[in-house]
């Protein structure tokens, strides 16, 4: 659709592949670059399900050691929500991470690259908020007041990423984490269009909800090691797209959704696709239902043949040795065919075609 809302249509490309190739070349040509190679060639390990809102330096290192002790290959390890001070204060929480630089060095020595979770929100009752509220880089509501938005972790102010100064500020925070601690990349979460209003007063006037989602996604283009879950109009760019949280279930929004959703994602131009966390990333599923070991195994086996695969709930904790062995086999299979997957990713960066 054009900016005015006019529907653009056409025909004559004979096949779905032909139609896709035309649309890709015309509207979202590939950038000729890919995200960090390790995302394709080794399993990923996200600590969300295992640690939830209580990550610590000790727990992170133990998870990494357990990966290796159970015969799984090292890869990218993602430290998720709440490693930090209040939202927007992107510094390691001193109580939970007393020596973050040493932790990152140990993870690197074990063969892992390290990602940190971040978002565009700022806790209102924090020093960071008081400082940023004077700069004009926080989003304003229709009345000209700093917008405070409800999201899954409470109520927060929001960076106005249509403002170059807001993007510059965010990049400064992330660059400092890389320089000071050796962090390799970032999971840039949230940014969903539902957290914005169509009449918000932004730096670029009349920015749509989807436009704000797009602006946040562009922040990650600076970092080859990245992950998103919400995106808009950035098909063909070297951004990793993880499928939205899946449930721990066979049918509905669980295992059955991985392949259809992954195929749809590719046809939208987002080739660098990661299925959700193995067993499901909707964490309430792990607190309210009986875990099904075979379901976790099938999640792992399916994910192994995606461009990327991501563990979270520790298979060595939640299942017996037999089922754990199947998960280890799936992880090793992905690493084994990693060079082929990487070759397909590089091909996709030139042709724009989906990997999956």
What does this entry look like structurally?
This protein has helices at about 15-25, 40, 50, 55-70, 100-110, 125-130, 165-180, 210-220, 255-265, 285-290, 295-305, 315-320, 320-335, 340-350; strands at about 45, 75-80, 115-120, 120, 150, 155-160, 185-190, 225, 240, 275, 310. Helix 4 runs parallel beside helix 5 and helix 11 packs parallel to helix 13. It is globular and about 60 Å long. It is of the alpha/beta class and about 350 residues long. It contains 14 helices and 11 strands. The longest helix has 18 residues, at about 165-180. The strands form 3 sheets. It has a 6-stranded parallel beta sheet. A 3-stranded antiparallel beta sheet has the order 4-6-5, with no helix packed on it.
SSE layout and pairings?
Layout: H1 16-27, H2 38-41, E1 44-46, H3 48-51, H4 57-69, E2 76-79, H5 100-109, E3 113-118, E4 121-122, H6 127-132, E5 148-151, E6 154-158, H7 164-181, E7 185-188, H8 209-219, E8 226-227, E9 241-242, H9 255-267, E10 273-274, H10 285-288, H11 293-304, E11 310-311, H12 315-318, H13 321-336, H14 338-351
Parallel strand pairs: 1-2, 1-11, 2-3, 3-7, 7-8, 9-10
Antiparallel strand pairs: 4-6, 5-6
Helix pairs in contact: 4-5, 11-13
Rounded mean pLDDT is 96
Specify the number of helices: 14
Number of strands: 11
Residue stretches low in confidence (pLDDT < 50, at least 5 long) are none
The CATH H-level superfamily of one domain is Glycosidases
Q: Which percent band covers the strand fraction?
A: 5-15%
**SS-based structural class?**
alpha/beta
Shape: globular
